[in-house]
Amino acid sequence: MTTLPRSLAVSSLALALAACGGTGQPEARYIAEGNPPLLSDWGQVGLSGGDLVLGGNVVAYDMNTALFTDYAHKLRTIWMPDGTTAHYREGDTLDFPVGTVITKTFYYPRIDGELGERVARTEDTSADFQDGRMAMDQVRLVETRILVHRENGWVALPYRWNEDQTEARLHRVGAVIPMTLVAEDGGEEAFNYVMPNTNQCAGCHAPDSNSRAISPIGPKPRHINRDFAYTNIPQNQLERLETVGFLEGLPDLAQVPRNAAWGDEHASLDELARSYLDVNCSHCHSEVGPADTSGLFLEPDTPFGPNLGVCKLPIAAGSGTGNRPYDIVPGEPENSILVYRIDNVEPDEMMPELGRSTVHAEGLELVERWITEMTGSCEI
Asked: Which of 64, 148, 251, 320 has minimal Cβ neighbours within 10 Å of its Cβ?
């Protein structure tokens, strides 16, 4: 695919935003030092005419299957300074240059326009970012997390949105935010949304236990190899990054790995479950991850067997076994430690250990079905 010059790409994006009514577009920037107090200092996202819009040349993206965070919806973005580009890496996160800014904004659809602690638990995406903007009267923004690649490595900075939804301020100490999820059938579930402090960010974003360096974990080719509706024109996200000059070395898309998309009716049960476990667990559960001592590796290329947890005795689960004998017992989710830990919100027993205060019922059901359909047996 032909890559546009960066100046032309910026102009094209600006024209597209203007065509859909965008005004007051923020100026995206890289801040090499310090801890800017306001999210608006970065210019990655901003408010315009009652909508949330992206800064100049900021590219939105989505995941085939997303990491679960208490049913929050997420707007993800990537931006790089002029003259820089990322390099394609097949089995790892894209190799982003110094100056890259990645954001993730967590939000919930409102209920009947109400702005308060009651939010919708729904997979309805009608209130999500689309056509270059997101209507602020349809969502409650909670936080925006910044990952910035500086000369000495990646830095994580969390910003909490104020009650008026006009700005997000740096909140390095974390926060516990009481909220209530309201399901489509009217059922309610009170929970504490936990905003991590800057130290806790390394709990997920340090996928190499040797270096313990912070890095992005989401923008791997297999996770983002999918279409996104850029100003209502669908385009593959990797091709989009290449088009605007943010990516070099992209092979033919037919050669790029792709995880199953959440809810894809054409994907097999195994593909769906492995994709879910990959994005939610494999940044820790890999041969070099923080959970390497567990012997449980949940990357997509892990072969069926003990390393995937099948008939594997727990090594480092502590109290998180639930008195169950193996990580996975084929055909018996009720006897599998993996299910016990997903169906848990106790700090010493749940998995993942961070990032949620509720059980993902749909994800749990998917993993239970996956194990139920496995053949074989273990000595119990």
From this structure: 251
